[in-house]
Structures are given as structure tokens and as C-alpha cells.
Amino acid sequence: MEYRSYNVKSFKKIPQIQTYLSEEEIRDIEIVSQVFPFKVDNYVVEKLIDWDNYKDDPLFRLTFPHKDMLMPDDYERVKAALDEGDVNKLKNLVNEIRLSLNPHPADQLSNVPEINGKKLEGSQHKYKETILFFPKQGQTCHSYCSFCFRWPQFVGMEDLKFASKEVEVLIEYVKAHPEITDIIFTGGDPLIMGTKLLRSYVEPILKAKIPHLKNIRFGTKTLGFWPYRFTKDKDSKDLLNLFKEIKNTGYHVAFMAQFNHYKELETEEVKEAVEKILDTGAVIRTQSPILRHINDSAEVWEKMWKLQVQMGMIPYYMFMARDTGAQHYFGVPLYRAWKIYKEAYSKVSGIARTVRGPSMSASPGKICLQGVAEVNGKDVFVLSMIQAKNPDLVGVPFFAEFDENATWIDELKPAFGEKFLFEQHLFEGSLVYA
Ligand SMILES: *Cc1c(COP(=O)(O)O)cnc(C)c1O
What we know:
Bound molecules: pyridoxal-5'-phosphate
CATH topology of the domain at 104-281: TIM Barrel
Oligomer: single chain
Structural class: alpha/beta
Helix content: 25-40%
Strand content: 15-25%
Distance between the termini: 45 Å
Number of strands: 15
């Protein structure tokens, strides 16, 4: 399949759009994608979306903007500005709306590391063992997921963007930090880069032979959205060879794949791609947020985890949709997410119970709802941190008042009149990565 991608300007050329969508629905996509980024490739359009049922199709919901992603008031204002045709007015309005949507949740800008007076603009070091690296040319994706918390990167909100100029400063930093064992290439999607370019980032790291560095990870959606990257693209063999080389140099290659629905696992293309990746010695771990309209049922997660294990992948995280962008549209209450997680978890065998969740990536760390407990006749949430800026807090249970509707940690109240663990200790620990 020849790669083709569509955006707000070109999506009307997609034949299925003309066949299935009403004028009004097409207009809605145009309006909403003034604010949120929109891009979709022809594999998603032709192989993943069931156009006969597109209104409820999870992959359609995942990639195509929907009217309800904007608040009614914002929707009307964008629509009016578009109709008016005043480009500057529209630009200012769109910017105002974007800024009101918490474009940088969880203090992402405050985790930018520094070495010898140089800032690593394209990196983030929040958790002791692991540094995120955002190669400059990997700051886009094959198709945009409409829930994505990195959406400001794709709409040109420049000062909110992470992107790396060079890998040399990263190497200097990692060398100086013996606690770092993992580098995660992320984005956008680092596998959007051609293999030659990706090599130019990876090879200097291998050559640096940093003794404490053990794991090279790639966070990617390419396996779900463009599996040909590993099978038929002209530099696919070279990409697989690069994974092998990393592995043969002595590193663990961790392929962190994002799958949001089991439908993404069912094509022949993805099955072939998974086999090819596993053949290189890389290990594929999977993660996804839980999203309304897309995967908010236990059946979907149960089937997804089972299929993943059958295909040789390891279920890793269930995330809560972050408090950014269209969270009101995708957000599932924490309690409901936990019930879905628990039901699906109880129906899979032990080898799929490697998954953790539902987890919120917040400023203090990854906070997981472990369950609901009754203490002195009162229901409370039992929470714990899977990752924390202060590693002393990892794995310590703490409590919040039961709240059926809360969708994020900032809506929860500590139980028993205490402060939350991370509020007490955030600035006391020996290792605080701010
Ligand atoms: C989730 C995350 C990581 C990786 O955490 P693991 O639990 O090791 O997968 C690293 N850095 C940041 C900022 C993260 O949010």
C-alpha cells in the first residue's frame, strides 16, 4: 500500500467521506479540526474503519474529530469565525480556546533536564531510571489520536513543544546520571522517521557504551496505524536490522506499542509486523488510555489483552485520559475505569495480568486506583503510585474519599482528613526530579 495521509484540507478527497458522511458531519470535522490536530492515513481509512457503522466505529471515533469534542459555545464561535472568513480573528479565537484546554498537563515543561549549563530541550527526566527523548523529526504521527495529550505539538504551539536538536547533549547527560537505565524515544512517534535518520540518533548512543544504560525503548503508534513500516516500506528491513543491532550490542529493545482497540490487532498486516519485530529480539509491550466512545467496556479490554498475549505481546498500562484537550469528551470516571479494569483483569489468565491501571500521569507521578476498600464502615479509594518523582513513595498505599464521578486526581479528596502522600513528601525525598 502506497502511503497517503489526509488532513483538514484534503480529507474530503477520501472516497468514504463522500459516500457515507452528511454535509453537516463533514462541516463538523472542518470546524473541530481548527482547534485540534487532525490527520489520518489510508491504512486506517481502508483497513481499520468499518464505514457501514462509522458513527459508532471505535477507529473512526479515535481518528476523526467529533462535534462534541468542543464545548457547544466554542463550537459556535469557531463556526461563526469560519463562516465570516476573517483569518486573523479565527486564528486568535482558536489560540484562545487551545490555551483554555490545559495544553500542558502535569507540568511537563518543568521536567526539562540540564547538563553543564545546557538545557536538554528535547528531553524530559521525571522518573529516576528513565529519560524521555523527543527527536526533532519524530514530532508527528501517521494518524492523530483525537485524545492525544501531546496535541499542542501538532498544532504549532511552539513554546509548548518538545524537540531535540541533538543527541550528543543527551549522551553527556545520561553519562553523568548513573541512575538512568532507560532511554525512551518518543514523540509524536519516533518511527515516523526514516531508518537512516533514526539510526543517526541511535548509533551515537550505542557507540557511547554507557555502562549503566540497559534499555532502549521506542514509544510508538506505528504498529497500529502503519504496520507496513515493518513489512513493506522500502527501509523496513533496515529498521528491523537496527533493532537487531541494538539488541546484539547488549541492550534490551522495548517496543512500547499503543493499541486502543482490539480491532487494530485483527488485520493480517499487523500480525505480520508483530512477528517481524519479535524476530529481532525486541519485546513488545502495549498500552492505551481508557476512552469513552472507543474502549470503555470490559469486553474490549479482555479481548485486547488476550489477543496481545496470543500474538506475543505484553500488556503493560491502562491509562486515564489526561486532563487536557477534549477530556470532557473522552474522560471516563476513575471508579468506572477501575471497574472495567477489574472485570477484564479477572477474566484473563495470569500471563495477561502484567498490566497495571487505571493510572493517571499527574505531576507527582503515575497514580493508580488499586480499588475500593471499606474502612470503619466507609468506602474509600485505595491509591498507590506506580512511578513517582520521589521514588520513596512508589508502592505505598494511600486513601481518598470515595467519589463515583471524579475523573482525575485533582477532583479527589484525601480520606481521614489527611493530606495526600505526595503532598506531604513531594519536596522532602532525597531524589526529587522537578
Ligand atoms: C510513564 C512515563 C515514563 C515511563 O514509565 P515506566 O513506568 O518505566 O514505563 C517515563 N517518563 C515519564 C515522564 C512518564 O510519564
